[in-house]
Amino acid sequence: MNIKKSVLLIVLILIIDQWSKIYIKTHFVLGESVDVFNWFKILFIENEGAAWGAKLSDILPISDSIGKLVLTVFRLFAIFGIGYWLYDVIKKESSKTLIVAVSLIFAGALGNILDSVFYGIIFNDSYNEVASLFSDEPYGKLFYGKVVDMLYFPMVDTTWPDWMPFFGGSNFRFFEPVFNIADTAISTGVGILLVFNKRAFKNEDDEAVLGPSEISEAQDALKE
């Protein structure tokens, strides 16, 4: 897989991701939802932190504002790191599986960093109103944007039986996290690396395998 196909895949994911986020942001009030199926909803929420809404300020003795800035800067460094990884695997003509996986991870990471960096200065607030694109009254500052999430799959929404220890009577919902297209791309890329690990790193493994003559020379060298 060459760099042109990789870029095409990344651009395609970014277009779908950003289009879906901008559409939700400019058509939904925060917290509004639409039932597509019983097990699938479009639910508009905004994520100010990392995965599952976690915040650095919940872990470290820092303010929410500083925690948000640190997280955004970290994401920027991660983008450069993943971008170099993608460039390296393409340059080395690694397996198509590996290039596709890294391309998906890069596209997803870039999609979410666009929210974090720019959304705070191009949208107004979504509380009790539908936001406007390029608003005169943006809700935040550069690097302080919120990530837009909307895909929600509550495939199981029930209550634990009363007789069950510890959990009896409490609500159980699967799958509860709300995510977006960028998150899906990242998860898919990581999943490919985990499930198809041998295929993804096939070229690297092949290069590491020594032939009979190389093995013999290595054995002789060890004896000396």
Molecular structure report:
- This protein is an alpha+beta fold.
- The protein has one domain (3-223).
- It is built from seven helices and six strands, in the order H-E-E-H-H-E-E-E-E-H-H-H-H.
- The chain has a four-stranded antiparallel beta sheet with strand order 1-2-3-6. Strands 4-5 form a two-stranded antiparallel ribbon.
- A hairpin with a 2-residue loop joins strand 1 (33-37) and strand 2 (40-47).
- Helix 1 packs parallel to helix 3 (96-122), helix 2 runs antiparallel to helix 3 (96-122) and helix 3 (96-122) packs antiparallel against helix 4 (181-195).
- It is globular.
- Residues 206-211 and 218-224 have low confidence and may be disordered.
Task: Note the topology.
Layout: H1 3-27, E1 33-37, E2 40-47, H2 64-91, H3 96-122, E3 147-152, E4 156-159, E5 171-174, E6 178-179, H4 181-195, H5 197-200, H6 202-208, H7 212-223
Antiparallel strand pairs: 1-2, 2-3, 3-6, 4-5
Question: What is this structure, in a nutshell?
Answer:
This protein has 224 residues and is an alpha+beta fold. The protein is built from 7 helices and 6 strands, in the order H-E-E-H-H-E-E-E-E-H-H-H-H.
DSSP helix fraction: 40-55%
User: In which order are the strands of the major sheet placed?
Assistant: 1-2-3-6
Give the termini separation: 44 Å
Strand content: 5-15%
DSSP, total strands: 6
The parts where pLDDT drops under 50 for at least 5 residues are 206-211, 218-224
Class from secondary-structure proportions: alpha+beta
Indicate the mean pLDDT.
86
Overall, the morphology is globular
